[in-house]
Every structure is written in C-alpha cells, then in structure tokens.
Specification:
There is one protein chain. 36% of the residues lie in helices and 17% in strands. It has a seven-stranded mixed β-sheet, with helices on both faces. It is an alpha/beta fold. It has helices spanning 2-11, 18-28, 59-67, 108-120, 139-150, 167-184, 203-213; strands at 32-37, 48-53, 85-89, 93-97, 124-132, 155-160, 192-194.
C-alpha cells in the first residue's frame, strides 16, 4: 500500500526490536530543561547535539517532534531564534538550538555558528544539518556543510517537510542529497534522514541515530545501532 511504501521510504531499511524502540522512546521522554544561552557555565560532561539550517526550514517543529514535547517556540516569522540555546535531555545529552541562517544575517549567523562549532567540537555528539525537502541543498547549506567538515564535526543531513512533496520527488531529493554527500564530504560519515515533523515520519530513525552518535546504548547486547540504509 502507499502507506507502507511511505513508511519504508522514511525508515530506509532500519529495523528496531521492541525493546530497542522502547529504550529510544524512554530516553527522549526524559525531563527536558532550558539550560541557558551558549556559552553556559557548569555544563555536565554530556555530548551536545546541535541543529542548524536556514530560516523557516522547520527546525523548531523538528526539534519538538524529536523531543516529543514543545521545548522550542515555533513561528512563521523568519529569524525568531536569536541565541544559541541549550536544553538538557535528562542526563543523556544537551540539545543545542542555533539561530537559522540566511535571513538578513549578512554573515553574522554563520560567523556565530563557526565560533560555536570551533569551541564545542570536542563535546559534539553530532550535528543535524536541516534542508527543506522542497528546495534541496542551497549554496548557504553547502557552506554550512563545509564548516562542519572543517571542524571535523560528525553530522547528518535531515530533509524536513517530507510530507509536502510527492513520494517520487522525495526519492529524487534523497538521491540528489546522497550525490552531494559523495561529492562534497570527506571527513565525516554523513547520511540522509527524510522526515515529516507533522506526521512523525522518520523521527524514530533520527532519534536512534542521535543516540548512536552520542554513544548511548539502546541495544541489549551493547552494540551501537547502525541506522545506515540497508544495501
């Protein structure tokens, strides 16, 4: 059926046991708290997961879907996130919300992003580079990717708003993003994560990827989950 095909498209071959699924959901159900604007003092030695992307890419909606609660305010107005904000997710990791780039920033947002990545790279579990599935990777996204490569930050490319494109177009966007990864990434293992925040498609796979990148065990046999697409 079309529903099964869509589910497979977002899962990309990932299979989770019932116990592993429960473990993922339990971790993301932990209490979240706003820690403060970066740089913050007194942080625990926990990995950081940073989300970056153009303004209006759907970052706030994705973070709320990822966390299972409304931890960041959504807005139709571009550029409403002004600071680099940190949230604790239990004692598992810190979620870092960075202002969107490309809306009247004249380079300031990219400069701030570069400063953060350089300072925090030793404690970063992974970065999520958000790209609108309707538009694909733009020049400014390519520059953001180059910053992640420069500072050797492991990252994944998340295709947001997958429910706003047809399945054939989403497949084409996944393929073109994979071609970009093949041509432009060298230092980091990068994968593609199509998601729909509204329908929660692809959210479980992304959650599992975040935990694996942070070396958080979700499998009973101590293996870190491999969320790469099956051959």
């Amino acid at each position: 059926s079309e529903l099964v095909m869509a589910s497979e498209l977002y899962a990309r071959g990932m299979r989770l046991s019932g116990s592993a699924t429960k473990r993922v959901k339990d971790i993301f159900a932990k209490e979240k708290a706003f820690v403060g604007a970066w740089p913050s003092k007194g942080l625990l030695p926990l990995p950081q997961v940073v989300a970056i992307g153009r303004t209006n890419v759907g970052k706030s909606s994705l973070l709320n879907a990822l966390m299972g609660s409304e931890i960041v305010r959504t807005s139709r107005q571009p550029g409403h996130t002004r600071n680099i904000n940190l949230f604790s997710v239990g004692r598992a990791f810190y979620l870092v919300d960075v202002p969107g780039y490309g809306f009247g920033s004249k380079g300031q947002d990219m400069e701030a992003l570069g400063h953060y990545l350089q300072a925090a790279r030793g404690g970063l579990g992974t970065a999520l580079l958000l790209v609108n599935a309707q538009h694909g990777i733009k020049d400014i996204d390519e520059y953001a990717s180059s910053l992640l490569e420069r500072f050797c930050v492991p990252y994944q490319i998340v295709l947001t708003k997958g429910d706003l494109v047809t399945e054939p177009d989403l497949r084409k966007m996944i393929a073109s993003t994979e071609a970009f990864i093949e041509a432009h990434t060298q230092r980091c293992h990068v994968d593609v994560f199509p998601v729909s925040s509204r329908l929660r498609h692809g959210i479980l796979r992304l959650q599992a990827s975040v935990l694996a990148a942070c070396s958080i065990q979700i499998c009973a046999d101590d293996r870190l989950l491999d969320v790469r697409p099956s051959a």
